[in-house]
Amino acid sequence: MESESPGWLGYVIVAVILITVLAFRLRSMRRERTLKVERLWIAPALYLLIACFVFWHMPPAGIVWLWCAAAMAAGAGFGWWWGRMTRISVDPETHEVRQKGSMAAIVLIFVLIAARLGVRNAEALGVPGVHIDIAAMADILIAFALALLTAQRVEMFLRARRLLAEARGA
């Protein structure tokens, strides 16, 4: 008789990996580091290229476009909030712009991971009405991430530019 591997082992492995990654991320967020305001556009631009490539070659079908639009709206809201939660300061003498991550970012990451695991487990447990189309989910997540990255960086850019102007004018 073939024995099944315990399902909980997979959850333990995932939990250990997540906790390790988030611990390193939390540790790096505690440190203040230089913010290169002129480079904030790079990550959203690269991700926009990736999103355009994916949507051009494998466009979402039908109603998935609406879900992508909703995901972009949610991503923009979360991204703006994440950007607002990032502490930005300007050294009055050197005018060096510094940033420090916030705990809100870690909370957002935990919420997103929990939501993903919840949907995944609901389907695996056979909860009625839950069916996940992997291609649609990928398209929706691409739209969400694009808006999140863009809104976060735009908010940080606008605030850093304003703080820098205030420091130069003072």
Helix and strand string, N-terminal first?
HEHHEEHH
Number of domains: 1
Query: What structural class do the secondary elements suggest?
Result: mainly alpha
Number of strands: 3
The outline comes out as globular
Helix content: over 70%
Mean pLDDT, all residues: 82
End-to-end distance: 78 Å
Description:
This protein has helices at residues 7-30, 42-57, 64-85, 103-124, 134-169; strands at 33-34, 87-90, 97-100. The protein is mainly alpha-helical and 170 residues long. The chain has a 3-stranded antiparallel sheet with strand order 1-3-2, with helices on one face. The longest helix is centred in the C-terminal third of the chain and has 36 residues, at 134-169.
Short structural description:
The protein is mainly alpha-helical.
Question: Which helices and strands occur, and which strands form pairs?
Answer:
Blueprint: H1 7-30, E1 33-34, H2 42-57, H3 64-85, E2 87-90, E3 97-100, H4 103-124, H5 134-169
Antiparallel strand pairs: 1-3, 2-3
Helix pairs in contact: 2-5, 3-5
Q: Which structural traits does this protein have?
A:
mainly alpha; three-stranded antiparallel β-sheet; single chain; 71% helix; globular; 170 residues; 3 strands
